[in-house]
Specification:
The chain has 477 residues and is mostly helical. It has 18 helices and eleven strands. A four-stranded antiparallel sheet has the order 3-4-7-8. The chain has a three-stranded antiparallel sheet with strand order 9-10-11. α4 crosses α9, α7 packs across α8 and α7 packs antiparallel against α9. It starts with a helix and ends in a 17-residue tail after the last helix.
């Protein structure tokens, strides 16, 4: 049996989280095509987002990929997360890139020799046997682990999957909550745009304006060899990204946070509280509570913490005038830009009903109602909108998946069904592109993108209800 056939074979027995996809020929074809993308991107231990543009393992990509991969092979989905967590630092952080030693240094920048994780990160407990970056990405991993467990509880119990990943996930959350509450209000801050995941969002233009860019001669942009310059960040913005990362590295990846007794941005030029990053932490805190309960440990405290984080999110980042959540620059205050990040908290089951209603209205309104039916990454009427440039307007499939799940969580079934249909149509028509023009559906970025294919599989295995509130319990083996 070849690799694709192995991946597309259905797992049988008790504990499958979703039903098989529709037997309609179009759905079956899309299922096989998505499975082929994941087979082509599989390295033997993890999945690269894109063979050419992103040839290593990325943190939040792997969480999304595991969610889809569980429908093809729960074992590979477990390994996806285990490989990532094996590169965790001693202080608990999960790095945003785990580098493959088989990939040439010049294939991607910043490369391992830029990050110098094993030396610059020694004080923070960076691993010595694998090279990583020193920054993080959104923490959706506990949510992914819970859903992967639910896909085949028997296999999960037999392998001790939850028992092995739970301590690492708990340490990951502990790092964020103790070391990254730089604003003192209970929310996590990101210290680099790459940490938030929506790297080139106009939300970062204000904070980045304080950053002197690294000289253009000090780095080489490998991304431009695989993507159109008009789709990618500008040289000026990229120079600022490099400067921020180099400064963090040169400071030995040190963080300042609540465990020191006072809260400060530490003089950082970039420190931002972001709604989607914190929403994914809250969702994963709920999931971690379920994992704890599955292992026989108390989970009520984690649910309570998730509720406190939800309250802090509303208090610090909700904006009535915009009808959505906004980012907060710890130096400059609220960032008056609308982005898809401010819609992602719709995912949360504990969101006040009136706020959920406002988010749905904003999603349907002129700032986000794109002709494809997907969600643009930035305000369609915003001054910085560009339909094809990285995170400055294009529609991305991971954020569409999050919003679709959020709509279901709050009883908006018709809107969720429409989002699901738009997602599957655009994913198939674009060749599982990294992202698309929000109005035309034109494919942009890398083709055959990992999370696009994975989340296509997840939506083909449709489920009524939010990812947060999935089935409790499971087969204990």
């Amino acid at each position: 049996m070849d690799r694709t056939a192995q991946l597309t074979a259905r797992v049988t027995g008790r504990g499958i989280a979703y039903d098989p996809p529709s037997t309609a020929p179009s759905a079956a074809s899309l299922h096989v095509r998505a499975a082929r993308v994941l087979a082509a991107n599989w390295t033997g231990t993890s999945t690269v987002p894109s063979r050419n543009l992103y040839p290593h393992q990325w943190s939040w990509d792997s969480a999304f990929i595991a969610i889809g991969l569980r429908h093809l092979s729960p074992l590979r989905a477990q390994r996806e997360l285990e490989t990532l967590l094996a590169a965790q630092w001693g202080d608990g952080r999960v790095p945003h890139i785990v580098f493959s030693p088989s990939v040439p240094l010049d294939a991607y920048f910043p490369s391992p020799d830029f990050w110098r994780s094993s030396s610059a990160g020694r004080a923070a407990g960076a691993p010595r046997t694998v090279q990583t970056s020193g920054i993080v990405q959104p923490p959706g991993h506990a949510l992914a682990a819970w859903l992967v467990h639910r896909a085949d509880p028997g296999l999960s119990w037999a392998r001790g999957f939850l028992a092995r990943v739970y301590p690492r996930l708990a340490a990951w959350h502990r790092y964020l909550l103790r070391r990254r509450d730089l604003g003192g209000g209970g929310l996590v801050s990101v210290v680099h745009p790459w940490e938030q995941g929506m790297d080139n969002s106009p939300c970062w233009d204000g904070p980045l304006a304080r950053v002197a860019p690294a000289p253009a001669v000090s780095f080489r942009r490998a991304d431009l060899a695989h993507g159109a310059p008009g789709d990618r960040p500008t040289d000026l913005d990229y120079g600022r990204y490099v400067r921020l990362a180099a400064d963090y590295r040169d400071g030995e990846y040190a963080d300042l946070g609540g465990e020191f007794g006072e809260y400060t941005d530490g003089g950082r030029e970039f420190a931002v509280e972001d709604p989607s990053f914190n929403a994914l932490l809250i969702a994963s805190e709920h999931a971690l509570a379920r994992i704890a309960a599955e292992l026989g440990a108390p989970g009520a405290g984690r649910h309570a913490r998730a509720e406190r984080l939800t309250a802090a999110l509303v208090e610090r980042l909700w904006d009535d005038a915009s009808g959505m959540f906004l980012c907060r620059d710890l130096r400059g205050g609220m960032i008056r830009e609308r982005s898809v990040s401010g819609l992602v908290p719709l995912l949360l089951p504990g969101l006040p009903r009136e706020l959920a209603g406002a988010l749905v209205s904003t999603l349907r309104g002129p700032h986000f109602a794109a002709r494809t039916g997907l969600v643009p990454s930035y305000d369609l009427r915003g001054p910085a909108f560009e339909p094809n440039r990285y995170w400055r307007g294009p529609a991305w499939f991971n954020t569409a998946w999050l919003v679709e799940r959020g709509l279901r969580a709050h009883g908006e079934k018709a809107a969720a069904d429409a989002m699901r249909t738009a997602f599957l149509r655009a994913a198939g028509d674009s060749g599982f592109a990294e992202y698309v023009d929000p109005d035309t559906g034109e494919a942009c970025g890398a083709p055959g993108f990992g999370w696009t294919a994975a989340l296509t599989l997840d939506l083909l295995h449709d489920m009524d209800g939010a990812v947060e509130t999935g089935e409790e319990g499971g087969d204990r083996r």
